[in-house]
Amino acid sequence: MIQFKRLDHILLPIPAGKREDARIFYSHILGLKEVPGDHPGGALWFAIGDLELHLREEAPGPYSKRHPAFEITNLDEARQHLQRHGIEITYSSDIDGRQRFFFHDPFGNRFELLEFTP
User: Fold this and answer.
1) Is 4-116 CATH 3.10.180.10?
2) Residue 102 in contact with residue 89, Cβ under 8 Å?
3) What residue stretches are annotated with the VOC domain (predicted)?
């Protein structure tokens, strides 16, 4: 079984060309602290309570990259468990200090599972 620990982050799409507008809204209007760094896909990361909000430019289309990401404690076992049930696992760019993968539920919703590495 998958051993869920906590919700780590949520990724939401923003329209192409609106990165600076998003930065102004989320940092200056909502007052969220931006997490500095060169994040995958040029995403903006903000601290929101004890989790992160990730914003990434995305063109409209049938499949969105929006997703919640859950920290778990047994990433390899979780991958094997999902694959045994015929669920396709996909990968994305590497993030230092984290191993991760993605999958879709039967309804097209995208999820990320991740585990922090020492």
Assistant:
1) yes
2) yes
3) 6-116
